[in-house]
Write a structure and sequence with these properties.
By secondary structure, this protein is α+β, with helices and mostly antiparallel strands. About 45% of the residues lie in helices and about 15% in strands. α3 runs antiparallel to α4 and α3 packs parallel to α7.
Length: about 230
């Protein structure tokens, strides 16, 4: 009795999913079929066709450009952080050199204006205004009783005890920046010490996007701690 060789039947209607699953399970398939790889063409956005190899090179090039962009962004952030660290250091030196509360407040105002480029800044300290009548720091320095009605628009911020960035309410803006309120596009409210026990620092910018809710507040928190420590000395 003769025997015939076993014939392997191949389903001519393999599903796309089956092909996908096979290639996924055998990622080295084309290493043994280089000629097949070179004959495969893929549609291109221009309407023509490119080989699979050319498409892979194009994808890798796009990934490389994306990574390069991300690297540039990280470098820019690192440089900005270095600059902020240098400014914090300079302000720290100026505050340490201050010999009393008046020179401390003046040093802080100068630092906000020249060192940090703040369009407007206001230091709000809780206490009896009469106890600070010997300090003339213009509109930068504001003393108010913590339970004063004027601070009621800030209740949520004061209760939260964390820096807040973005657009502020008209009542808050008017209280802080007064006749300059119309120039404020965005602001940062920075508590001084835990629970805003001393007061808070308000930094205003004409740029509506300068301070926004999504920005990191680490720098502002450190600034608040620094200012609080300097004020507590007196």
């Amino acid at each position: 009795m003769s025997t015939q060789p076993e014939v392997e039947y191949v389903d001519e209607e393999l599903s796309e999913q089956a092909i996908h699953d096979y290639l996924a399970a055998h990622p080295d398939f084309f290493e043994g079929h280089a000629n097949l790889l070179n004959t495969l063409n893929l549609p291109h956005a221009t309407g023509g066709a490119v080989s699979l190899v050319e498409r892979q090179v194009s994808v890798l090039r796009q990934k490389d450009l994306k990574l390069e962009k991300q690297l540039k962004e990280l470098i820019e952030v690192a440089r900005a952080n270095d600059l902020l660290a240098a400014k914090i250091h300079e302000l720290s030196m100026q505050l340490l050199a201050a010999t009393d509360l008046k020179t401390t407040i003046i040093a802080l105002e100068v630092g906000m204006r020249s060192g940090f480029g703040a369009d407007h800044a206001v230091l709000v300290v809780f206490g009896d205004p009469d106890a600070f009548d010997d300090i003339d720091a213009g509109r930068f320095f504001r003393v108010v009783e913590k339970k004063a009605e004027a601070l009621s628009p800030f209740k949520t911020f004061l209760d939260a005890s964390s820096a807040r960035c973005g657009q502020i309410r008209d009542t808050q803006r008017d209280f802080l920046f007064q006749e300059d309120a119309g120039e404020i596009g965005s602001a940062a409210l920075v508590p001084l010490s835990n629970g805003t026990e001393i007061g808070f620092l308000a930094i205003g910018s004409a740029d509506a996007n300068r301070f926004h809710p999504g920005m990191s507040i680490d720098f502002l928190t450190r600034l608040g701690d620094l200012v609080a420590a300097a004020l507590k000395r007196f």
